[in-house]
């Protein structure tokens, strides 16, 4: 497993309507082999990683409890996939260890090429961060060869830069499966295909639409409501805004393209900071390198206010984050709507420095790669303005190849500078593994949302 991986584990306001969910798998029932007493129910299990959603396991249901000790990685074969672990369980779910139950869990390597369910133009599992070109900051933001003039997406462009692949798998029982009563189900040649899908964390979000009376725009969005929501309490809210590769993909696009939205809704994060998570799905590019956003920019601010009014959300503990286009929007929204957010996590983005002075009054955590030319130079210019306004900026240079423990220590060290604005840049060449076609720009957010300590810092801030 990639050492960077974070194992992540209702109606809204205004004119809203609930959307139907995207079908991620097939629904036909499998035929039960005469010697193989599975019920025909086979469930695909997906998980979101820094570089996107992947199919990581298959759960096969049997008609009796299965003896976990009878299973091995040779018991099942999955077409085109590497089986890493096989165990019994009482439910169609991943587990640290097996326990006797009606389900057999067949775990699969997330590194398999066929594992990727979020596919971009550069290939599977988050190859390209943008739609038409990796040169524009609104799309990939790398600034590798230019900007909008180089063919990058412009405001209003609705060309998707990525695709959600249906989660499905075909497998065969290659070894004997034994029940807890000693009944042996022999191997067979019959193939089984997934009949349903469990999308970890993604399924905990609901999909809605917001009709903005002020702009006339309609915006699809995903909303996570704390599982133990109590309207008598006040909760924080996190807004995540995606990059341009996700425009016009599907309502769930922001949830499957990477960890930017779902990390805040993981069981681990919710145990520390119960919060709402709001992730709009933009039907077109909202802002490009001209920094003149479409009306969806203001609709986003109005959506935040509408959701705040609908639920028991603390207006002093609202936070924004985003990558590339979403990072640009986070900066721009903080300038235009200074009382909307208590803090912002800015990942690989920039905004014109000549209008950045109001950011000196904000609490920011900025992460960018030094070989992401446009975003890095842009953030250098912004933090220079912030410092000139008299606001302390804590700085650090990190190795993007660090382990989780090293990143945790890096966060603690930067926090010791006690600055309202923290600026961490990844060393050149450390955000992308050797041989990868992924840009340093995109590699930044593959890593950025795997660092819990930054999210903890954001959640401690208030207006």
Overview of the structural elements:
- Helix 6 (404-415) runs parallel beside helix 8 (452-459).
- Residues 1-18, 20-29 and 123-150 have low confidence and may be disordered.
- The radius of gyration is 23 Å and the shape is elongated.
- Strand 22, helix 6 and strand 23 form a beta-alpha-beta unit.
- Helices cover 18% and strands 29% of the residues.
- The chain has a ten-stranded mixed beta sheet with strand order 1-15-16-18-17-19-20-21-23-22, sandwiched between helices.
- It has helices at 253-256, 267-272, 296-310, 325-336, 373-388, 404-415, 440-448, 452-459; strands spanning 15-18, 38-49, 52-66, 76-78, 83-89, 101-108, 118-120, 123-124, 162-164, 170-173, 177-178, 184-185, 191-193, 196-199, 205-211, 218-224, 235-241, 276-281, 313-323, 343-347, 364-369, 393-398, 421-426.
- By secondary structure, it is an alpha/beta fold.
- It has a domain at 203-459: 3-Layer(aba) Sandwich (Rossmann fold).
What labels describe this entry?
single chain, 463 residues, alpha/beta, Rossmann fold, ten-stranded mixed sheet, five-stranded mixed sheet, 18% helix, elongated, disordered N terminus
């Amino acid at each position: 497993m990639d050492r960077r991986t974070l194992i992540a584990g209702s109606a809204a306001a205004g004119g809203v309507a609930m959307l139907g969910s995207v079908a991620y798998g097939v629904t036909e029932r499998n035929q039960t082999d005469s010697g193989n007493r599975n019920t025909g129910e086979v469930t695909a299990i997906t998980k979101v990683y820094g570089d996107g959603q992947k199919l990581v396991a298959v759960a096969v249901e049997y008609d009796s409890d299965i003896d976990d000790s009878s299973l091995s990685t040779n018991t099942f074969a999955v077409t085109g996939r590497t089986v890493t672990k096989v165990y019994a369980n009482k439910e169609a779910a991943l587990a640290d260890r097996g326990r006797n139950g009606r389900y057999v869990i067949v775990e699969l390597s997330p590194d398999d090429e066929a594992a990727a369910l979020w596919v971009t133009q550069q290939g599977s599992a988050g190859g390209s961060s943008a739609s038409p070109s990796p040169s524009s900051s609104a799309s990939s933001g790398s600034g590798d060869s230019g900007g909008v003039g180089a063919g990058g997406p412009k405001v209003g462009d609705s060309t998707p830069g990525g695709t959600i692949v249906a989660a499905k798998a075909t497998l065969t029982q290659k070894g004997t499966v034994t029940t807890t009563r000693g009944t042996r189900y022999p191997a067979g040649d019959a193939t089984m295909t997934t009949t349903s899908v469990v999308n970890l964390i993604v399924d905990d979000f609901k999909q809605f639409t917001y009709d903005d009376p002020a702009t006339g725009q309609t915006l699809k969005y995903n909303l996570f409501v704390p599982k133990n929501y109590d309207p008598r309490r006040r909760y924080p809210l996190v807004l995540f805004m995606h990059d341009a590769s996700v425009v016009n993909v599907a309502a769930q696009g922001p949830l499957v393209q990477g960890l930017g939205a779902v990390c805040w809704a993981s069981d681990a994060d919710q145990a520390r900071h119960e919060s709402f998570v709001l992730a709009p799905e933009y039907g077109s590019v909202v802002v490009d390198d001209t920094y003149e956003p479409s009306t969806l920019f203001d609709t986003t601010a109005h959506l935040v206010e509408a959701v705040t009014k609908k639920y028991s959300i603390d207006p002093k503990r609202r936070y924004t984050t985003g990558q590339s286009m979403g990072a640009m929007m986070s900066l721009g929204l903080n300038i235009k709507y200074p009382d909307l957010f208590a803090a912002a996590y800015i990942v690989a983005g920039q905004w014109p420095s000549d209008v950045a002075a109001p950011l000196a009054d904000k609490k920011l955590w900025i992460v960018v790669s030094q070989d992401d030319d446009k975003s890095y130079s842009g953030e250098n210019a912004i933090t220079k303005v912030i410092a000139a306004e008299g606001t302390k900026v804590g700085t650090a240079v990190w190795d993007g190849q660090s382990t989780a423990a090293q990143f945790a220590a890096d966060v603690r060290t930067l926090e010791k500078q006690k600055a309202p604005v923290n600026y961490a840049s990844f060393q050149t060449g450390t955000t992308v593994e050797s041989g990868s076609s992924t840009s340093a720009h995109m590699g930044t957010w593959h890593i950025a949302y795997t660092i819990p300590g930054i999210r903890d810092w954001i959640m401690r801030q208030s207006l």
